[in-house]
Design a protein that fits this description.
With 202 residues, the protein is α/β, with parallel strands linked by helices. It has six helices and eight strands; from the N terminus they run ααββαββαβαββαβ.
Length: 202
């Protein structure tokens, strides 16, 4: 897009703030629930859901980034990094032992033009055991099923990722859909925290 097009009133009108809402659901008996908003940046959003082209781009860049991270000698093998993409928003989750590994994974992800924004949620800790990942897969399956049963939510528009009992929700949704998805996820046994990585539609 040319500079004069980016400065046009119509282009500026279609710009919308993207926020990541960290919804910490303390399910271990704590009475208080903390809600934190972390502002990322402004992004260009269409008012409808992902187009076929965007869907293909998301799947393609997700595979490319995952392969690049897995093959990178600076990152090494003793990490567990997952890549999830929705509408050009790349979410990195998992575990790494060193800050340099995390920074390298972020740098690789930002190197792809299809990645509009990179959200880092990689934990600085030891690699999760197979038993832990199996439990996470179970939580993901149960969370997807719970969201699918919720009224007023299009479950296919929401991606679910689980790492160490922490559930990440991605998608292009309305605020009402987001609230209902979170309520559904909160009811799943084993969920420690819910992180919303949503782009909100009018």
């Amino acid at each position: 897009m040319h500079a004069d097009q980016r400065n046009s009133p119509m282009y500026l009108f279609n710009r919308k703030w993207l926020s990541i809402f960290i919804f910490c659901s303390l399910l271990s008996g704590c009475a208080a629930t903390a809600i934190t908003t972390v502002l990322v940046t402004s992004v260009d959003m269409a008012l409808d859901r992902r187009t076929v082209g965007t869907y293909v781009d998301d799947n393609s860049v997700e595979v490319k980034i995952r392969r690049a991270i897995n093959k990178d000698p600076q990152i090494g093998k003793n990490v567990h990094i997952s890549v999830t993409t929705m509408n050009g928003i790349v979410l990195l989750t998992g575990e790494a032992e060193h800050h340099d590994q995390i920074r390298r994974a972020i740098g690789i992800s930002r190197g792809y033009t299809e990645a509009r924004h990179v959200v880092n949620q990689i934990s600085l800790t030891d690699k999760a055991k197979i038993s832990g990942r199996t439990k996470d897969s179970w939580i993901t399956t149960k969370t997807k099923a719970a969201i699918a049963k919720a009224r007023g939510v299009k479950a296919r528009q929401i991606k679910v990722v689980t790492e160490r009992g922490n559930v990440f929700l991605l998608g292009m949704v309305t605020t009402a859909e987001a609230d209902k998805a979170v309520d559904a996820a909160r009811g799943v046994r084993g969920v420690n925290r819910i992180t919303k990585v949503f782009e909100y539609l009018p």
